[in-house]
Structure formats: structure tokens, C-alpha cells
Amino acid sequence: MLDVQDLGIRFGGLHAVKDVTASIPAGQITAIIGPNGAGKSTFFNLISGFYQPTTGSIRFAGEDITRLKTHEVVSRGIARTFQTTTIYRELSVLENAMIGHRVRTRAGLLDALLRTGRERRDEQGSRDGAMQALTRVGLARQAHLPAGALTQEGQKRVGIAMALASDPKLLLLDEPAAGMNPEETVNLMSLIRELVAGGLTVALVEHKMSLVMGLADQIVVLHHGQKIAGGTPAQVSRDPAVIEAYLGG
Ligand code: ADP
Ligand code: MG
Q1: Least-confidence region, from 49-53, 101-105, 147-151, 204-208
Q2: Which residues surround ligand 2, an ion (CB under 5 A)?
Q3: 17 CA from centroid of ligand 2 (Å)
Q4: Residues 179, 184, 185, CA angle at the centre, nearest 5°?
Q5: C-beta 245 within 6 A of ligand 1
Q6: 32 CB near ligand 1 (under 6 Å)
């Protein structure tokens, strides 16, 4: 579904991501792992158009998306969450999800500014899309609560709903289990499995090895910006280069 070829970006002298070639197959769960500072979030920032790569290419569903802007990437069907939850605490859960839905249609925003008749249809469409996303993450009944009133786990789900509201084919999750206790982590794993069973493709960055090993179909290991290993959880967990990266620093 997604293929990156020789992907790289430099920040000054630092190769945050360097010559990474990897695929994210449709209908599967791909985990991106690696020590802190390995380039995992940067990799997601490149795919989602937040950063423009210095080298390489990104293809999604047969189309070259290397130079697209973030909203163009979203409209192609790629959505992401952020490592730190970026929800609007004072707004309702539903309003948060609606913001996620609107990101898909910049034209809709322009129309809204010009106050055309389409504005009201967009409003209704974005409400429906947002409610569907909330239903998928189990928050339909909390839709009218302020997002800040939810538990931390609930707020994480709001973040996922904001991404789902753009109706993506590929969902990128950056450390979705960060700060979660074991029970919340198990719930999150069930949610991700349900989303994939419903046809979504998921790639996630995660530190919790129990989650990665229990969930991922395949793993890509980054270290100092480079891909040092890839394969099934079983293959990766006995790869000497991976063991060295984690133990040797
Ligand atoms: P990870 O998510 O694997 O912990 P990151 O992708 O966040 O790592 O960062 C990889 C490296 O790139 C780090 O050394 C980080 O400091 C650097 N980096 C990330 N984003 C920027 C940026 N916008 N400007 C400069 N350096 C950055
Ligand atoms: Mg990161």
C-alpha cells in the first residue's frame, strides 16, 4: 500500500532519516521500532507531508506522494496521530472529531469562509463523519462531553477519532500506548485489531514491546535514522543487529 524508497531527511548535519526503503502492506499492522531518537517520528512526519524529504520517494496506492502537502496526503487517505495528544480540551469530543473531518476538505473550509450554501451541507457531513469515527473508537456516548473531562485513555481515543474522521485507508499512530497502564494498553490493542478487521491498514511507532510483539504483523527497526532490520516479530526479536542496537545504544 505504501512504499518508501531511499527516503531521507537532514536537519543541518544530522541525518534524522537516512536511505530508508520499506513497505507498509495493506490490511496489516506494521510497527516501527527503535531506540529514542532513531527517526521514527520523523519517518511519520515525512510520510504525512509535515516534512519534505531531502532524498527518496514515497508511493501510496500506486501514486507518487513524495512532495504533497499535509492536507493533500490526508485527502489521499493517510491520517496520523501525534506522539503528544493534540486535542482541544475545552471543545466537546464531537467538535474535536469534526476538526479531524474538516482537515480533509480545505475547499470545504474556504466555502465556509465565503458562507455559501455548501457550508451547511459540509457542517452536516462533518458531523456525520465525526460521529462515525467516535463510534469506531467507542466514544459515541461521550460525544457531548468536553474532551478534557475524559480519562487519559479516553483522550487518546479522541486523538484516534480525529484521525479516523478523515476516513483514511492508512492510519499512522505515534506511540499510542504512551502513558497507558497494562489494562488500557490491552484495550488499545483490541481497538487497533478491530480497526484492521474493518479494513484499515495501520502503522505504529511504539516503545511497549508487549504491544508490538502481540500486535504487529511486521516490524521495521530504525537506528540512527537507518533501517537495520525488518520482518516478523519472531525474526526481528532474534536479529543480532536489533539486540545490539537496544543493548549497545
Ligand atoms: P524518535 O521518534 O525515533 O524518538 P525523532 O524522529 O523524533 O526520533 O528524531 C530523530 C532525530 O532527529 C533526533 O535526533 C531529533 O532531535 C532530530 N529531529 C527531529 N525533528 C527535528 C527538527 N525539526 N529539527 C531538527 N532536528 C530534528
Ligand atoms: Mg518519536
Answers
A1: 101-105
A2: 40-41
A3: 12
A4: 75
A5: no
A6: no
Question: What pLDDT does residue 21 have?
Answer: 98
Confidence of residue 57 (pLDDT cuts 50, 70, 90): very high
Report ipTM (2 d.p.): 0.98
Whether pLDDT at 108 is above 90: no
Superfamily of domain 1-77+170-249: P-loop containing nucleotide triphosphate hydrolases (3.40.50.300)
Check pLDDT > 90 for residue 249.
Answer: no
Query: Looking at residues 108-123, what average pLDDT do you find?
Result: 59
Nearest to 91 by CA among 100, 83, 78: 100
Sheet holding 201-205, edge to edge: 78-80, 170-174, 201-205, 29-33, 218-223, 226-231
Nearest CA to ligand 1 atom 16: 37
The residues of the chain that CATH labels 3.40.50.300 are 1-77+170-249
CA distance from start to end of the chain: 32
In the sheet with 63-64, reading across from the earlier edge strand, the strands are 14-24, 2-11, 55-60, 63-64
Q: Cα separation of 115 and 94, whole Å?
A: 22
